[in-house]
Write a structure and sequence with these properties.
- This protein has helices at residues 2-20, 22-37, 44-60, 65-72, 78-105, 109-131, 142-156, 159-171, 181-205, 211-231, 247-258, 280-283, 316-321, 328-339, 341-364, 374-394, 405-440, 459-483, 492-513, 527-545; strands spanning 284-287, 290-293, 368-369, 451-454.
- It is mainly α.
- Strand 1 (284-287) and strand 2 form a beta hairpin.
- The protein is globular.
- The two termini are 49 Å apart.
């Protein structure tokens, strides 16, 4: 009774304090939030400034690259433009994992950032010269592939590596010996938030109708940001590459093949644990008289042999140093990655839908009445993605018990995949309406004519595109970060980007496979059929994803 009275009195006193001194309490909470989330690290503004310049180049140039090709070529060739754009998009996403591996295993992140930024600027300058017709004629389409490869290298080795490099600088400001990784992540997100919104504001301010001005402005801005980044090198915390855990994938396969003749043991002492105390229920599974490592999947069970000790003249330490023996924990990590292959196969189809949207949405609005700038529609897409991701993490995720986090993450990905189907359906309906207006006004053979239809009609497509990315792409990153070890967390986004990037190559292949739907111009093409096909593929993909299977 006494404890109840004291608790009630404490609650009344707290409420009375908040009622009488609300501003001091708000000030205390704001200061606490700022102290946790904001770190005025000297290196952070220069790194985030370079991130901002990369984002601006992506929004102003890369996102509308197909429009530049169809605008400047004397003879419109939609198929070739689609091929070039899909090569760029596919390379820039699949090469992220390569750049991440190189920065971790061979050269430092700083060198990768400098080289990739130089490649990006070179690609932008070459685009500028091509827009002035100084180096590339309209018929020399092949030379554009060199430009998009340079841009792809710049994208792959730029922003993804910069984000990790920013975390390194903030981590160096943590008090020794305790490093609060959650606080480092919060501060990294704050600086990336500043970079992101700075790029958004730049999109709103920037107003140019000329391609040469767009290209040279992006190149100049990135060059200035890169120069400031180089000037601040003495402020950075430098770390040498220490190796990549991705190499373990190859060596685990090799060790398992070399020891394929070994029998599965019946006791845990035959496995190499490196004297770590492991929970037997999490790492071992009993199957009759044989013991297997978790996860117990039949077609990759043979990888367990990489963790079995050999009866040879070599000691356990020598076997491990020669990469003939790996720990139970290392083998389990590799096996878990391989169990994700079925999920990744469905994500490839999601990447196909996303690539089709990235390729054709801006081209659809190119000949419409420009009620708003195409950059505004792109801005709506990116804001929708960031907003839905933030709201989902802050609200819905807290209502799910910790033991059901796996289901929550799978549900989030599935919602994103369902939204991709809805996005295709909406795009199909709008394209049918657009083609009807084109035929009614006799604009089929007038690719440069303006369609009497506002480009605001495309807003629902861009909104749904942002929402599906916020659910599916960000959900994938969250899902794998939750399940993989800390050593592999740096590769989560890289692996997911690589998988979705394969969808860009698949989209390019599908366009050529169904080239009967595509003519030299978008007005003569049947994008509605392409979107309808994406609709069907998306529905089948959602069924294959199968929440109950996970």
């Amino acid at each position: 009774m006494g404890d109840t009275f004291l608790n009630l009195r404490h609650r009344v006193d707290s409420n009375f304090y908040l009622f009488c001194f609300p501003f001091s309490e708000i000030r205390r909470r704001v200061c606490a939030w700022m102290g946790y989330n904001i770190c005025f690290c000297k290196a952070a503004p220069f790194v985030s400034g370079l991130v901002c310049s990369h984002k601006i180049a992506e929004y102003m140039v890369v996102s509308v690259l197909i429009t530049y090709f169809t605008d400047t070529w004397k003879e419109d060739n939609l198929l070739k433009a689609v091929a070039i754009v899909n090569v760029q998009e596919g390379l820039s996403t699949t090469m992220v994992i390569v750049m991440t591996y190189i920065s971790d295993a061979h050269i430092s992140r700083l060198k990768v950032i400098v080289c990739s930024t130089a490649a990006y600027i070179t690609g932008l300058v070459l685009l500028y010269l091509s827009a002035l017709k100084l180096i590339i004629r309209s018929t020399e389409v092949g030379l554009f592939y060199i430009i998009v490869v340079l841009i792809a290298v710049g994208k792959a080795g730029g922003q993804p590596i910069l984000e990790g490099y920013l975390a390194d600088q903030l981590r160096n400001h943590e008090p020794d010996p305790e490093i609060n990784e959650d606080r480092v992540e919060a501060r990294r997100k704050f600086w990336l938030f500043i970079a992101c919104w700075s790029s958004y504001i730049s999109l709103l301010i920037f107003n140019a109708d000329s391609w040469p001005i767009i290209f040279i402005s992006s190149a100049t801005l990135m060059g200035a940001a890169g120069l400031l980044f180089l000037c601040a090198i003495p402020l950075y915390h430098h770390s040498e590459p220490t190796g990549s855990d991705l190499t373990n994938v190859f060596f685990v396969f090799k060790a398992a093949i070399l020891k394929r003749h070994l029998d599965y043991p019946s006791t845990r002492d035959k496995f190499h644990t490196n004297d770590e105390v492991l929970n037997p229920h999490q790492f071992f599974k009993q199957n009759g008289h044989q013991l297997y490592l978790a996860p117990q999947v039949k077609f990759i069970r043979w990888l367990d042999k990489a963790a079995i000790k050999e009866a040879s003249s070599l000691s356990v330490k020598d076997q491990a140093s020669e990469r003939r023996l790996f720990t139970v924990k290392q083998v389990k990590e590799i096996k878990f990655l391989l169990t994700m292959v079925p999920m990744w196969s469905t994500i490839i189809m999601f990447g196909l839908v996303r690539s089709a949207a990235n390729t054709f949405y801006t081209e659809q609005g190119n000949d419409m009445e420009e009620t708003v700038s195409i950059y505004i529609l792109l801005l709506v897409r990116y804001i929708c993605r960031g907003t839905i991701s933030y709201l989902y993490n802050r609200s819905f995720s807290k209502k799910i018990p910790k033991e059901q986090q796996n289901l929550r993450q799978i549900l989030r990905i599935w919602i994103g995949m369902m939204l991709s189907v809805l996005c295709c359906s909406v795009a199909w309906g709008i394209e049918v309406h657009r083609l009807k207006i084109v035929n009614t006004h006799g604009l089929v053979d007038k690719p440069k004519g303006t369609i009497p239809m506002s480009n605001c009609w495309l807003a629902p497509q861009f909104i749904l595109l942002g929402l599906m990315e916020g659910f599916a792409i960000d959900g994938l990153d969250e899902f794998f970060s939750y399940h993989v070890s800390e050593s592999m967390e740096g590769y989560v986004s890289a692996i997911n980007d690589c998988v979705t990037g394969i969808g860009s190559f698949v989209n390019g292949f599908c366009v050529y496979a169904f080239r009967g739907w595509f003519a030299d111009t978008i007005n003569r093409s049947r994008l509605d059929r392409n979107y309808n096909r994406g609709n069907e593929k998306g529905l089948n993909n959602d069924y294959a994803f199968g929440i109950p299977n996970y």
